[in-house]
Each structure stands twice: as structure tokens, then as C-alpha cells.
Amino acid sequence: APSGTGMGLPAAVRDRVAAVHRGSTLRERLRLYDGWAARYEQDVAALEYRAPHLAAASLAFAFPAPRAEARLLDVACGTGLVAWELHRRGFRCLHGVDGSAGMLERARSTGLYQELRLCVLGKEPLPAPAEHYDAVTVVGALGEGQVPSSVLPELLRVTKPGGFLCLTTRSNPSNLRYKAELEAALGQLERSGAWQKLLAQEVEYWERATSEEESTQGTGYISGVVYIYQKCPVPHLEEG
């Protein structure tokens, strides 16, 4: 198990993370992300943030070969951390969207994306036609005060029948209400036959906690979960 506690994080890192999670309005939060973009990758490295690695590994495990031709949409792509992990696993056709222009600028500099667009999910539809992507990822953005769980049908809309959706959320105390809402929405879509669940993996050491209250049983870390769903193929209508 990783050692040390989140309390050992540099105060500046703790403050930046707390500010983004505390941001009162979406506009304010996006402004904070714009300002955070230059330091984001150092800060999440200090947090030992494992979601991009865990999500990409889970998606690659579920995804049938070949991967190079598969078209993926990285929603709330940030600076491109998920793209690095997907690229390492053979995915080459990556599109990204994010609500922060500052984050997109960093993502563009990686050269990993074939297309990047500004899009505030939850406020506007994804800039893509229906059934366009073989897989859609939303890593790190499904959380309290960020992307609402009401976006799930929009994620499904742009996914091809038989395509995969890889989603993550945190299981720390301040996100439990959101997680319960998200899981209710996930379950409802499964019962309606929109998709089937392939994986829901709880991960204990997701990232370092920024406060004692958020820490899982005093470990200094918070936990999280990776979900993989497969969109159900459209049923053929009977003739006659």
C-alpha cells in the first residue's frame, strides 16, 4: 500500500485542489481550472492520482483488438493524462472535449489528440454526431459540483451500439451523495436495456486525501471506483 498521508501534501497543492472542489459556480470552477492548467500535472502527481491509469487499463482489458483504428472520445480531457495512458495501450484515434480553454491548450501541446473541442458538458451537448465513437471516457469529472449525472444519456448518444463507456467517480465522504445519485442513474439505464455493466471496481488508494475528514479510515487516501459499460446493440424490429 502507498505510504504517507495526504496531510503531508504541500499546502499550496491542498489549497488549489480544495479551491476547485469548493468553487461555487461552474463559471468560477472553470476559471480556476484555467488557472490551474500550468501546475495541474505536478499537483496530481503529488496527489498520486491513479484514475487515468486505472481507467485506461480497465478499458483496454474490456476492449476487443485492434485498438489503433478505434475512435475514442475523452470527455473532460483536462491536460491529456488519460490520453497518455490510452496511447500507451495502443489507442491512436483520440478526440477530447473540456470546459476549460486553459486545460485544452495543454492537451493540444501533447500532440496525442486528433481533435479537441471546448464543451461544457451538462450545459451543452457533445460536439459529435450520434453513434460516432467506439468508446467514451469520463475520468475524474463525475463528482459533486462538476459534471452532473444527468449527462449519461448524452454520453450514450455519441457511443456506437456495442461501444464502451468508461466512467470514474470518487468514494470520499463529500462525494457520497453524488456517487449514490450516479449509481442510481447507471442502474436505471441498465434496467432500461440501454447498456450492460461489465465492471464496477472499487479502488482503495485512488489519490491522497487533502484533509483528515476525507481520508478513508485514516489511511490518508481516498477511494474511488471505475465503471465499464457496453452500449446495447439496437434491437432489430420484427417485420410485419
Automatic annotation (TrEMBL):
<dbReference type="InterPro" id="IPR029063">
    <property type="entry name" value="SAM-dependent_MTases_sf"/>
</dbReference>
<dbReference type="InterPro" id="IPR041698">
    <property type="entry name" value="Methyltransf_25"/>
</dbReference>
<protein>
    <submittedName>
        <fullName>MET27 protein</fullName>
    </submittedName>
</protein>
<dbReference type="Pfam" id="PF13649">
    <property type="entry name" value="Methyltransf_25"/>
</dbReference>
<feature type="domain" description="Methyltransferase">
    <location>
        <begin position="73"/>
        <end position="163"/>
    </location>
</feature>
